[in-house]
Recover the amino acids of this structure.
């Protein structure tokens, strides 16, 4: 079953990586690229975080994964409404 559609990371890959390396959610994200695709983790962030939390329960110093919106370049003229 594919968890991260953008990077095509499966549930099996996530569980195997988390178990092998005893990963936190951030480490799991960096090792598998789950949550680093076009959507920025909006669809798979919670699942990646929960898989990592099952393998290595979160302590008070660890935070859950964040997500960010996709970024697209835009010209300053488009922002200010100035046409050349």
């Amino acid at each position: 079953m594919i968890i991260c559609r953008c990077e095509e990371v499966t549930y099996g890959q996530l569980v195997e990586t988390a178990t092998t390396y005893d990963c936190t959610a951030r480490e799991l994200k960096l090792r598998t690229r789950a949550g680093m695709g076009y959507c920025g983790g909006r669809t798979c962030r919670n699942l990646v975080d929960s898989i990592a939390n099952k393998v290595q329960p979160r302590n008070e110093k660890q935070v859950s994964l964040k997500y960010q919106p996709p970024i697209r370049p835009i010209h300053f003229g488009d922002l200010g409404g100035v046409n050349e």
